[in-house]
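[job 4471] stage=fold_predict status=RUNNING
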Amino acid sequence: MKVLFVNSGIPGFPARYAYDIHTCLRQDFHCLVRQTSPQNLSKRLIREFNPDLLLVVHGTYTKPELVRYAGERGVSTVLWLVEDPYEIDYHRGKMVEAYQYVFTTEQRAVREYDHPRVYYLPWCCNPRVHQRVTAPPAYWSDLLFVGMGFPNRLRIINYLAPLLKKMKVVLIGDWESWGRLHPDLRGKVRPVTGDFWEIRKYYNGARINLNIHRDPVDPPSGNSRGVGAESPNDRTFALAGCAAFQLVDRTRAGLWDCFTDGVEMAGFTDPDDLAEKIQEYLAKPVKRTMIGEAAQQRAYRQHTYRHRLGEIFLKVRRFPEKNWETTIRTSPPQVFVFPASAVSPGPGLLYKTRGVRDR
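[job 4471] inference complete, writing structure tokens
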């Protein structure tokens, strides 16, 4: 099958999941894939490549008229929204209406779209990338948080400052744009990095990975109707794939449809509960390891890009059913070790998968 894959066109974090999707299409589904950016998508490219499927991720910068043009030529057009509900205002109307199939990582967003084929498709992991590695001492920590310092996260972290200041804590992200971090914690901040090969070392080097979901409306970024959020974030699955122990807030009810509380990760209800669990699990290294390994097994069994893209193919029905069975449902994902220098394929490059299917 020929897939024209349009990435987000945004540098940094989005380039990482574009790499995950592109790699899965090529190596798991053996598709002929051409990746491009929204800025380089054109009628000429659509005509010349003549894909079976146009797959757009994020979609904000992809022109709806080009999507409709592809559909008129008999191409199945698919949009995978990954910023719901935070940017849902930009998705409604002409954007989603241009596509034949729409998938979103947020369950509550499904009913917000006036479209006959909108589906919930949760985040996932890439076993080729999200895996256990040996972290050098420079990446070790008692507690790690990776993410932007949004107001709800700041409140929790600042509340815990008396406890955290005594520990080896690493905060990777922007902790200045949405408020003031407690003075005792400012020295624990490290710069934002979009290099997942680096982040993976931090995940594996942390005794506890803290996962606090973003508030759906604060800070405001495109959710004027206040659509709530109940689905787990991408970090939940990345950490699980790395077999990293995580403490995660219980604000997203849909999280427990994907993982089991206390078995594959540990949930907390409020800052006081979090403080207690930090101290509890720091003293239980064996239990942390068992929980992290259980999360990885669950993620590899049910929550990989192969599973998610397989669901897209099942809906679109552009892929031979015999391949759905062998690729999605019966064969466990194989873990590959990629060099740290690996980068996502650039726009406009054409690849054809070679080699054997994962066993």
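[job 4471] summary: The two ends are 21 Å apart (CA to CA).
[job 4471] exit 0
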